[in-house]
Design goal:
The chain has 430 residues and is an alpha/beta fold. The chain has three domains: 153 residues, NAD(P)-binding Rossmann-like Domain (Rossmann fold, 3-Layer(aba) Sandwich), CATH 3.40.50.720; 159 residues, 2-Layer Sandwich (Dihydrodipicolinate Reductase, domain 2), CATH 3.30.360.10; 84 residues, ACT domain (Alpha-Beta Plaits, 2-Layer Sandwich). It is 36% helix and 27% strand. The chain has 14 helices and 17 strands. Strands 7, 8, 9, 10, 11, 12, 13, 14, 15, 16 and 17 form an eleven-stranded mixed sheet that branches. A six-stranded parallel sheet has the order 3-2-1-4-5-6, with helices on both faces. Strand 14 and strand 15 form a beta hairpin. Helix 7 packs across helix 8. The chain is elongated. The protein binds NADP nicotinamide-adenine-dinucleotide phosphate. The site of NADP nicotinamide-adenine-dinucleotide phosphate has 23 residues, from helix 1.
Amino acid sequence: MAEIGIGLMGLGVVGSGVAQVLLQKGTALSQQAGITLALRRVLVRNPHKPRPLSLPEGLLTTNPDDLLNNPQCPIIVEVMGGEEPATTYIRRALEAGKHVVTANKEVIAKHGPHLFRLAQQRQVYLLFEASVGGGIPLIGPLQRDLLANDILSIRAIINGTTNYILTRMARDGVDYHTALQEAQAKGYAEPDPTNDVEGIDAVYKLAVLALLAFRTPVPLPQIYREGITHLQAKDFRYAHELGYEIKLLAIGRKENGTVQARVHPAFVPSHTLLAKVDGAYNAIEVQGDLVGRVVFHGLGAGPAPTSSAVVNDILTIARSVKAQARPLSWVNLHTALPVRPLHDLTTQYYLRLNVADRPGVLAQIAHILGDLSISIASVIQKDADPSAGTAEIVIMTHPAREGAMQEALGLIRRLPVVREVSNLIRVEAE
Ligand SMILES: NC(=O)c1ccc[n+]([C@@H]2O[C@H](COP(=O)([O-])OP(=O)(O)OC[C@H]3O[C@@H](n4cnc5c(N)ncnc54)[C@H](OP(=O)(O)O)[C@@H]3O)[C@@H](O)[C@H]2O)c1
């Protein structure tokens, strides 16, 4: 059987998983592809580091040229992570006429359009199934199986770390810091969790999904981002009383030739599928004009699920090479659609305030909201603290404009009777 060589860049969580699959299931996979998959070189930073697997002698290298200038590596698999040098290596591989598989959402989110053009010019594959949703087949379906659709919206839980933390806070009433420490102890959260808990990882993934679903680049600074660090256990209690769960959602919508893209915690009605996605699981709901709503659900990270996606991409390329077929799966982008600013959003809001516990306070707040055409759906007064003379008020609004809501918050904060605007959370209707 003919052979096709693979240069693997990175031997960490994902790289080790991919190498393990190639070494252990190589024969069966080669039969599937009709061509032998041969792992030729593996790029690492530190060749002396202990690894969870033993590789055949002589595969490890610290020199990228051993892969990029090597005619025996027509497929490059980039699983190093980070923007650089990954972007440069991917670009060099494509320029050299090599096929590329990557799991790198940051590179695709920031440089996707340029790299897609390059792959098309050189008639090679650039596949990135593992970049969003780990092992969940999502990129392929968006590029292939849903192509007949005009994709109207994406609503996704695409960060397992934050979903694990939010699930612990919701189910067991633990506070944010306890849930984070536990996630770190279990290996779900990094020692520096900023990228996950501040929503940065989800923003990269939403940008990748928008490229495929709406066929437009969405500049990262134009994606509204809010993390989960300001959520408190009591927000989850109130959410439950009101019939909701709190999830970190990545939301993309196409409306009248514009796109809206935002990542923030949201109230999600408890009976919906998204509300039931717990722990480290991911779920991505895609709404197409023809297909309606489809939901993809599964494990969004970890060596085994992620290597499932990476190795499938390798198999797609190997089969196509074997068949001497031209790559089919390029991403053809439209001209950039304008991104609608957040203040144009119309949605319901949950507002938690700490106020002086005396008559007339609610009337002052209602007056400000009313003047800005924000109507109140319900009010609950909670947790009075007689020693401090304060009380907590929870307000649910009817749909209102974000711009008006932000203006109202500015005015409410200045009321002498308001001690604190404790939280504002957007409600994502069904
Ligand atoms: N972890 C997941 O579950 C998961 C899921 C989906 C997607 N991804 C994506 O997959 C990629 C890899 O993630 P990971 O968790 O596997 O990362 P990781 O565990 O940190 O591994 C990174 C690997 O790349 C090597 N590396 C990093 N920079 C290098 C450089 N400049 N030159 C040579 N080698 C370099 C490291 O070498 P040393 O070992 O010598 O340090 C290490 O083997 C990222 O883009 C990530 O977003 C990860």
